[in-house]
Amino acid sequence: MPFELGVAWSHRAGLHLTGAAGLIAEFPVHATVLGISPETVRIGVEASLADEAVTAWATTTLSVRVGGLTAVIEDVGLAADLTFPDEGGNLGKANLAPRFKPPSGLGLHLVLGVVDGGGYLSIDEPRGMYSGAFQFGMASSIAPGSSGFRLQAVAVLNTKTADGRPFTERDGSESYSLLVSGSFQWRPGLVLPAGITLTGLGAIVGLNRRANLEELRNATRSRSLDAVLFPADPVGNAPNVIATLGRMFPPDPTGTLVGIMARLEWLAGTVRADLGIMIEFPEPIRLVVLGRLVINFQEAGRFQLDVVGTLDPGAGEVSLDGSLVDSKLFGRPVSGDMALRLRWKGEKNFAVSIGGFHPAFPKPTGFPDLKRFSINLNKSGDLFRVEAYLAVTSNSVQFGGALYLHFAFWELVVDGRAWLDALIQFKPFWLTAELGATVSVKWGDKTLLALTLLIGISGPGPWRAHGEVTVHLLFWDISKRFDKVLGDPTEENRPTFVNAADLLLDALKQPGTWDVATPGGGGEMAALSTPELPAGQVLMHPGATLGVRQNLLPLGVDLDRLGTSRVQGPRRFDITSFTVGGEAGGSATRSTTTTRRASSST
After folding, report:
1. Measured over all CA atoms, what is the biggest interatomic distance in the chain, rounded to whole angstroms?
2. pTM score, two decimals?
3. 3-state SS assignment for residue 244
4. What is the b/e burial string over 479-488, where b = at least 16 CB atoms within 10 angstroms of the residue's CB?
5. What is the SS3 assignment for 500?
6. Residue 10: band (very low, low, confident or very high) from pLDDT cuts 50, 70, 90
7. Which pLDDT tens digit goes with each residue over 173-208?
8. Under 8 Å CB-to-CB from 299, ≥6 apart: which residues?
9. What is the spatial distance between Cα 326 and Cα 292, in angstroms, rounded to a whole number?
10. Which among 81, 272, 441, 601 counts the fewest CB atoms within 10 Å?
């Protein structure tokens, strides 16, 4: 919604407004009538106070398919200009002039025999956006078992920002933003080791572009990765492909995007993997990975997993998001989400989940909401659904699932649910598990039977068992609950404490902690005998280097824990000086590795 207004005053015009304002709404449409498919409807109003005019329009983007010909007509419709001429108009002081709005884009895709080709071109000067698509090849050349090729490309050029201003570089100079994505597919492909066949290669280049990670992650759930990973019909779906690419990789004067793509197949096309690897630069440098795995067992089922991964060294984060899309098992829909987050800078954390977390577990910061992995076994309006989840964090493992049942016949309604939820915490050790089931039978609004069974356990600290049995039968109700503490109810998981200073001193008293390095270039000294040393002493050459190594704890770091125990007393240790034979030595040095060394020539 571009919006720019100003207030000005002059002796001649007095107080007046300057600038322009506009409102644009876009609505997706999913319908097909006689081969005509309206894809979007746009309604807009724009006011120019400088021209004293208001323009309103309503347009649509159409896809028309007739035989082997597909035509795309973008942004065609009607417009009306409302002006205020000095001599007046058809509305008194105003004049309303409706007109036909010509399309801003046009595309043609033709399949003629074995030849498959087409192109698309869109020019939108008010928005400063110029885009196009191209494809050419052999019909059905990308189907398994066929032979041929397909070449396709999509390009988007922006000279203005979203608010209508000229696109500028970071130094303020006018520039542009360009995105080009292309691919080449061929069959029978290039055979690689392990029975893998390479059937497609592609590239994507973005000048003054960066990846919108949130949009890419959402694309795994909406099948929008089609716009990047080898789109099936970039000309026939050009408006959607171009709009999706613009959202995924928006103009940004701070970065450049470069990537490559590959399509791999295995087992005669039963397994197909599309992979895209992209890098953004300059700082912040990020690696973005797009992937799609399709396993097609024909009648038995089809599984498609779309994933987006990122590596951000500056933020110290790795992320992975994935969703099952258009997946079925024996004709029944299968769905679910997965995600991974790993952060090693700032607030360190790790979590990976398929289908979400335990109901009582707080979702980690920055972790998306995930749909349970589920299989719907629907038949005649009834419901039979199985759900499951598995999650692992840096301090826990979680798993569980549920079974849902819904049956309706006339006034009779049966609903049921059975579930299992378990969570195991490592440090300090603690677990909780719950198993339950509930079922109800209704006739209209009246409950004939309701049954609930529940049993759970948690602990230690202390161990606790609880359960419930509830029965409702017509006018009879019974309910029994129990909550029992096992063992000592005052028992708690008290943390253990260690004195790190005492442990470090004990470690330094061990002769194996000390190293003696012979001076470089010097010969070995003659020794008439090897004296027996008292316990805890080290024999060394007068010109040798004495070093100390210990693997107990890191130096120069504030310690909260040592192993699984909390540190009490001094929490930070370092080597700042040393003495030899009761006399102070020189300066001490320490390496940057986790194994520390202090050394000096004596």
Report:
1. 124
2. 0.71
3. helix
4. eeeeeeeeee
5. helix
6. very low
7. 999 999 999 999 998 899 999 999 999 999 999 999
8. 330
9. 12
10. 601
